[in-house]
Write a structure and sequence with these properties.
The protein has 144 residues and is mainly alpha-helical. The protein has one domain: Alpha-Beta Barrel (TIM Barrel), CATH 3.20.20. It is 42% helix and 8% strand. The protein is built from 8 helices and 3 strands, in the order βαβααβααααα. A 3-stranded parallel sheet has the order 1-2-3. The N and C termini lie far apart (33 Å). 28% of the residues are buried.
Length: 144
């Protein structure tokens, strides 16, 4: 069970994430704000390597994204700069859905489109048709 959440700290490195994982501490990542304010972000590769649960969220208005989808889009674009991307599309989308639910101990009620789960969903036939085209469903959600 996750006992704490560490938010947006950009100076964390491998040893910190190892300690966080051992103590069941999660991490909330605000990529755009980190890059805008500091020019770098947390060592997300180390967080993932150490199995820290990572959730993505926009930070405050002056330097963060306008909302969660905007932050996901920003992260998806940032992820492409790596020769071997840190996230696949499904994994990146999980940082905005199931992972935050895990961090607040609500993953049996939130974070997925499943029967019995709470969700706000807007259905747009045009978007669904576009998403059904070849390519990644997860990528299409993040780019919507």
């Amino acid at each position: 069970m996750k006992r704490a959440i560490f938010a947006t700290e950009s100076s964390l490195q491998d040893e910190h994430f190892r300690l966080m994982a051992n103590a069941s501490v999660g991490f909330v990542w605000s990529l755009r704000s980190n890059l805008e304010l500091y020019g770098y972000t947390a060592n997300i590769e180390a967080a993932l390597r150490n199995h820290v649960t990572v959730a993505i969220a926009p930070d405050w208005s002056p330097t963060g994204s306008d909302g969660l989808l905007s932050e996901l889009n920003y992260a998806a674009t940032w992820n492409t700069i790596f020769q071997r991307p840190l996230f696949d599309d499904q994994m990146l989308l999980a940082t905005a859905t199931v992972n935050p639910a895990k961090l607040i101990h609500q993953d049996q009620r939130l974070g997925a489109l499943k029967e019995g789960y709470l969700a706000d969903v807007t259905y747009d036939a045009k978007v669904i048709a576009e998403m059904s085209k070849p390519g990644s469903l997860y990528w299409n959600i993040m780019k919507s």
